[in-house]
Design brief:
390 residues, alpha+beta, three-stranded mixed beta sheet, 13% strand, globular, disordered N terminus
Length: 390
Amino acid sequence: MKLHHACALLLSACAQRDVAPRAASVTPAPAVGPPVRALTTPDDALAREVAALRELPLRAPLRVERVDAAEFAEHARTSPAGAATRATYVAFGFVVHEAATEPTLARAGTLGLFDFEAHTLWLRDDLGGGDRGVLVHEMVHALQDQTFGMPPTPADDDAVLAIESLYEGDATFVRELWAAREEGQPAADRANDAVMIVRTHTRESLASGLGIPESASRGPRFGETLSTYLDGMIFVASLWKAGGFARVDAAYARLPRSTEQILHPEKYVADEAPIAVEAPPVPPNTTKLAEGTLGELRTRLLLARCSKTPAVGGWGWGGDRYVVAEGAGGRLALLWSTEWDSVGDAMRFEAALRRVSDRCWPSVRGRGWWIGPGVTISRAGRHVDLARGA
């Protein structure tokens, strides 16, 4: 599993950006490398502080490596999106054609990362004294690695985002609590303030205030990546308020199964699972490239492309399944089936989806894959189907 990064210190002046785990380990693993040494360095002192704040054991010294910008860039390099992911971006209109560039947060000025495979925390060596906030966030990932490890990557792409949100939300929340202690603010007050800021500000304004370049915000994964930090933090904060870090720890044993559970923590507590939706059939004379679940989060992002009015949040997303197929000449077809909690929810979604179709899905042609203008939307009770480009 690969996790991305965003600045997470919501209530402090912050232009530092950090990256989360780049790779997955299946089971908890101690740090590897030289024999265990005494915890005597400044990094060790901060690690003890973070461990105490997060209420997790520091099982072994953390490996913190400071490297120059060139070497750090190599460690921060991520693999390009695979064909299935790129085809899905095109089919849903998150990029205009297959050859479009994908500005990522990692290219926007990454300063630190924790690698779950190497069990190593990497920092750029030109941070000077400004790396403590970055270190706190990444040290939480190191503690997660030592205690929980990283689970195998789920086959469902919405579940992947949900798990990313737990890991990133945890690190973001602890960084907020650390900042609160530095500033003499009660932890509960800081938690409430951070949640309020995320809920009352647009994601664009939060990104701008956190120093994330506009180029990164144009990337097709920007919204979902930022959500893993911000909505993930709200999710973790809600668990913490209900039962402290013991309740947060329990979430690693019963992982969230959908972004709906992240966006509505009460549905996680109730263990409300996504409704199983059958994948639409592949159109004749095409080859399936991708199949997956868009989920509530990315459905919100899709609808937000056409309107600044919040959508889906108050609706009852139940489940969905999409298929992206390729025909002659690189032409794509998108088939998307969704299920909603009520007929009213389905009707609202149908209307919003038609607005997206009318305003935001022009016929797209370019190098690589392309998708035509044909869109069919139908509803039967709580079920809404879409066919685009077929």
